[in-house]
């Protein structure tokens, strides 16, 4: 009888111990749920984007001693916002730098011969002078090479300075030289190979390439179309948007979407360099998407629905589809008044969309994204607890199994 009482007391003691373990684990579970890294169960209440004040300062800010505030501007994605966005898109104009270089060569410019060009000189009625001595280029094209010092040799005329002259000036010079031997010579000068003047394209492409300048004005879009290594980048499926034009020590950022939209070509000049920069040509998908990834921004524009589809869609098992956010870069402004109260304000735009209904999906299909946008899908309220539970369950299972093993050993010993 006493053994049974003692056995029952031991069982009750073990039960109390198990309850204590469970209470301890559940307490840790709740603590873990509250402190799960990167998540907040109240993150969709509209305050997750509270940036607060900046505790650090840049060198310029240290000099000016101006405090910096981060004040997000939250905008609901509505039909009115979509309409405003479309009007802005329709009224887009080139930036000042792009307008300046697009108007720099409004009139046609005569081609200037340079060293390395191959010329074909035709003297009508005198075939022996059209291709004297059967001279050909290294590719078998009839013509005369402009030497490194810029000269060509032509029968009865001698050394002729070609580099720096237009084709019309070359015609007049050779006709004048031949006039001593031929009555009223009829001369034509053509460029068979353009090799002296080029545009260089490099950057985020498979291999740098060069495009020759000819007697027809070459634009930025035409140069990019002629760059074969650019077309082979990433299988040719993604277009280029951001290009840096470097000319005479000046760097000018070009937005190809703006160039396409305005229809104003950007003419190129000899020795211009185009640097392809796709690093700024991304849209970032974070949060409750099937894939958290950086998507290439398509030439011609990209809509929110496209980005979500390319990321594999929203994870319906964990996302709060009523809380989809588009975070768009900082815009610097300064409070009015000046003086000691002057404050620098960095205002990111945060666009919020409810995609839990068909209307929201229609808006997503019309909302235009911009490069470097961050699309964030917030987690549902229960997701944080479930994730914390998944972290704690292995420990709980190990504790329970250890206790049961101890219990079985104790029973066998008794």
Indicate the overall shape. Answer: elongated
> What is the CATH C-level name of the largest domain?
Alpha Beta
Number of helices: 12
Which class do the helix and strand fractions yield?
A: alpha+beta
How far apart lie the N and C ends? 15 Å
Order of helices and strands: HHEEHHEHEEEHEEEHHEEHEEEHEEHEH
Helix-residue proportion: 25-40%
Q: Examine the coordinates and then state which fold CATH places here, giving the name of the CATH topology of the largest domain.
A: Outer membrane lipoprotein wza fold like
* CATH architecture grouping of the largest domain: Roll
- Beta-sheet strand percentage? 15-25%
- As a whole number of angstroms, the C-alpha radius of gyration is 36 Å
> Low-confidence stretches at least 5 residues in length (pLDDT < 50)?
35-39, 41-46, 234-238, 333-343
The major beta sheet can be summarized as: 7 strands, mixed
Mean of pLDDT: 75
